[in-house]
């Protein structure tokens, strides 16, 4: 019987959650759910120097907003807790010592100055930045070069040390990546990575292996940038005697800048005017807030839909997927090897499609707080529902709802006078004066009555309906947008419609 699938998302809580990170979480989630497995959140906070207050909760909030919350994580108890690496500190050292014991790792006592000196002395034009590796380690101060007693003395005197992996010479380290197939690495080209740091904390390399093992992770998805470290991890799995349990790895393709040149960064977003973080991120160190997709007005359904398709395709024409449909359709075989270009216009298209698709009542739940936060009296839920159904297909971002619907609640304060003036004339003024009078006499105020009255008058006066309708729109809305004018008029009522006509006529003199 095959093992129960367990995937994990293992972010370091150091700042805003980049959309590439959300996509890693999403693929891990989709894969787990597709195979009726468990999705775990593990907080990789062993680098104390990069710790940022609030970043962990922020990640949890982002995942919750996306609807991809973890089954296990710092917020849950359970057999594999704790899920925060800083709380697991004591667990790692014994594995580092076990590796030293078995000859696969060693103590290194080099000071930062000595490391610098090595880099200076050993650099050649062919190798401008020598690493601590199979070539250089025998020139350094470590338990491979010191006598046993010397090492013991340094340890007894509590001289600071790190533990490094001893990369083997002339070996080909091979593993199978779910996306890229068989990957071979020359062990001579990989440095002796630090496994345990001077402060007793593990580095990512040790912690990721120990935790994936202890948490019984079966499939580990992470960004392509970790590919160069994979041979270290593969060796650690085997040196610790756990080779049989190593998870299936998948290194996900990068999300690229819109022009395809390099990885999409926060700076690209700032430069090109779109977010790269899931939600607004307030950095307590700089006091700066960076915009997120959520606050810009993206629906979580649209956000995960667009992320799913950044690097994966379903094999069909279809592009709009609910979360359930994604779980059903997702497969690692269709994840691309190459990077995926981020296209903000396409991202907005997804949101627009999702707004159109969303039932009016669900939309209203988003729109109500947007309007209320701007001090708008929504009249009644029924009225708001009608407004939402009229404007919804015109909104790309949730925040567009404000501009698209405010005039249903308040008369416009500003008008596109330039556009009106191009069409304004004495006979138009005459038309609208007469229209007010006819509106006054209407006994029924509904779409049909309004439209008939308006069009009949235009025909009588021999005026193009389109011209007066255009002016009428600006009278009601303030600008050249919004749903049909008679719909708007019907909604805002007779009194308000007449006042808005008068108001603009007054401004036109
Ligand atoms: N903590 C690593 C990161 O934030 C996780 C990599 C992994 O998933 O193994 O990139």
Give the gist of this structure.
The protein has 509 residues and is mostly helical.
List the helices and strands and how they pair.
Blueprint: E1 6-9, H1 19-34, E2 38-41, H2 55-66, H3 89-101, E3 105-108, H4 112-122, H5 148-156, E4 162-165, E5 172-177, E6 181-186, E7 194-196, H6 204-214, E8 219-223, H7 230-239, E9 248-252, E10 255-256, H8 266-272, E11 281-283, E12 288-290, H9 293-296, H10 300-308, H11 323-329, E13 340-341, H12 344-357, H13 360-373, H14 381-391, H15 400-405, H16 417-423, H17 426-441, H18 447-461, H19 465-477, H20 485-492, H21 494-508
Parallel strand pairs: 1-2, 8-9, 10-13
Antiparallel strand pairs: 3-4, 4-7, 5-6, 11-12
Helix pairs in contact: 1-11, 6-7, 10-12, 13-14, 16-19, 17-18, 17-21, 18-20, 19-21
The protein binds glutamic acid (GLU).
Residues 10-12, 44, 204, 208, 222, 226 line the site of glutamic acid.
Explain this structure.
With 509 residues, the protein is mainly alpha-helical. Among the domains are: 88-209, Glutamyl-tRNA Synthetase, domain 3 (Alpha-Beta Complex); 360-508, Arc Repressor Mutant, subunit A. It is built from 21 helices and 13 strands. The strands form 6 sheets. The chain has a 3-stranded antiparallel beta sheet with strand order 3-4-7. A two-stranded parallel ribbon has the order 1-2. A two-stranded antiparallel ribbon has the order 5-6. Helix 1 packs across helix 11. The chain is elongated, with a radius of gyration of 32 Å. The N and C termini lie far apart (84 Å). Glutamic acid is lined by residues 10-12, 44, 204, 208, 222, 226.
């Amino acid at each position: 019987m095959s093992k129960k699938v367990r995937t994990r998302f293992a972010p370091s809580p150091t700042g805003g959650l980049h959309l590439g990170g959300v996509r890693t979480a999403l693929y891990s989630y989709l894969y787990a759910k597709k195979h009726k497995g468990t999705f775990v959140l593990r907080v990789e906070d062993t680098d104390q120097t990069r710790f940022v207050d609030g970043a962990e909760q922020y990640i949890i909030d982002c995942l919750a907003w996306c609807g991809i919350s973890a089954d296990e994580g710092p917020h849950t108890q359970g057999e594999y807790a704790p899920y925060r690496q800083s709380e697991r500190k004591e667990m790692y050292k014994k594995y580092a010592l076990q590796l030293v014991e078995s000859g696969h790792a060693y103590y290194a006592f080099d000071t930062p100055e000595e490391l610098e000196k090595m880099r200076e002395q050993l650099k050649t034009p062919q190798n401008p930045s020598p690493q601590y590796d199979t070539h250089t380690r025998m020139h350094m101060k470590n338990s491979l070069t010191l006598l046993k007693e010397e090492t013991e003395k340094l340890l007894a005197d509590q001289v600071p040390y790190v533990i490094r992996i001893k990369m083997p010479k002339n070996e080909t380290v091979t593993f199978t990546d779910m996306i890229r197939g068989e990957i071979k690495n020359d062990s001579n080209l990989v440095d002796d990575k630090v496994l345990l740091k001077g402060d007793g904390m593990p580095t990512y390399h040790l912690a990721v292996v120990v935790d994936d093992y202890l948490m019984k992770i079966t499939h580990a998805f992470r960004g392509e940038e970790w590919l160069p470290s994979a041979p270290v991890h593969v060796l650690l799995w085997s040196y610790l005697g756990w080779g049989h349990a190593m998870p299936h790895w998948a290194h996900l393709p990068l999300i690229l800048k819109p022009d395809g040149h390099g990885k999409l960064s926060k700076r690209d977003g700032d430069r090109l005017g779109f977010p790269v973080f899931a939600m607004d991120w307030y950095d307590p160190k700089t006091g700066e807030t960076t915009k997120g997709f959520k606050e810009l007005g993206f629906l979580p359904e649209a956000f995960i839909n667009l992320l799913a398709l950044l690097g994966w395709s379903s094999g069909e024409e279809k592009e709009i997927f609910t979360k359930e449909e994604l779980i059903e359709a997702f497969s690692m075989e269709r994840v691309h090897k190459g990077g995926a270009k981020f296209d903000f216009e396409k991202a907005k298209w997804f949101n627009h499609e999702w707004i159109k698709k969303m039932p009016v009542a669900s939309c209203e739940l988003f729109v109500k707080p947007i309007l209320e936060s701007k001090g708008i009296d929504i009249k009644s839920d029924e009225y708001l529902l009608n407004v939402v159904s009229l404007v919804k297909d015109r909104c790309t971002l949730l925040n567009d709802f404000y501009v698209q619907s405010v005039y249903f609640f308040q008369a416009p304060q500003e008008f596109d006078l330039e556009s009106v003036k191009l069409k304004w004339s004495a006979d138009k003024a005459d038309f609208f004066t007469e229209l007010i009078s006819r509106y006054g006499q209407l006994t029924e105020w509904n779409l049909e009555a309004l439209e008939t009255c308006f069009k009949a008058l235009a025909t009588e006066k021999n005026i193009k309906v389109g011209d007066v309708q255009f002016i009428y729109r600006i009278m009601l809305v303030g600008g050249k947008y919004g749903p049909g004018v008679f719909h708007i008029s019907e909604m805002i009522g007779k009194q308000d419609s007449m006042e808005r006509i008068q108001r603009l006529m007054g401004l036109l003199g």
